[in-house]
Amino acid sequence: MSDDFSALVESFKQFGVSRAFGPAQQIGGEELIPVAVVSFGFGGGGDGNNAAGGGGGGMVFPIGTYGRKANGSIAFQPNTLVLMALMLPLVGAVGVSLRGVIKALRS
């Protein structure tokens, strides 16, 4: 079973890299390359009595595109909605930190 699991993990490593940057597309006179955050995770275990289990999952967030304009310049164009969703943990951490600092200053 471990050989099968290792082969699966290796195939997902290659899959993730190919999904982070998509194939170039020509749209409205611009060459666009889609960019995404790709993450996968796997786990497994057993109790020693021939009972075992495993599972895995993944996510892909399209964060924007790299575009080559007609004049040859390259620019990143973010997907604003997804970037805002990905920023939520950072905003929460900053809020908790500020609360702690304010509480310490009042004491």
What's the count of strands?
4
Radius of gyration, rounded?
21 Å
Indicate the percent of residues in helices.
Answer: 40-55%
Straight-line N-to-C gap: 58 Å
- From the spread of the alpha carbons, the general shape counts as flat
Number of helices: 2
Poorly predicted runs: none
Strand order of the biggest β-sheet: 1-2-3-4
Mean pLDDT: 82
Reading the helices and strands in chain order gives HEEEEH
What kind of sheet is the major sheet?
A: 4 strands, antiparallel
Counting helices, strands and paired strands, the structural category is: alpha+beta
The count of domains is 1
Strand content: 35-45%
How is this structure best summarized?
The protein has helices at residues 2-20, 80-106; strands at 25-27, 30-46, 52-68, 74-78. It is α+β, with helices and mostly antiparallel strands and 107 residues long.
Layout of secondary structure:
Layout: H1 2-20, E1 25-27, E2 30-46, E3 52-68, E4 74-78, H2 80-106
Antiparallel strand pairs: 1-2, 2-3, 3-4
Keywords: Membrane, Transmembrane, Transmembrane helix
Organism: Arthrobacter terricola
Protein name: Sporulation protein YtfJ
Please describe the structure with a list of short key phrases separated by commas or semicolons:
membrane; alpha+beta; transmembrane
Walk me through the structure:
With 107 residues, the chain is of the alpha+beta class. The protein has one domain. 43% of the residues lie in helices and 39% in strands. The protein is built from two helices and four strands; from the N terminus they run H-E-E-E-E-H. It has helices at residues 2-20, 80-106, and strands at 25-27, 30-46, 52-68, 74-78. The chain crosses the membrane at residues 81-102. This is Sporulation protein YtfJ. Keywords: Membrane, Transmembrane, Transmembrane helix.
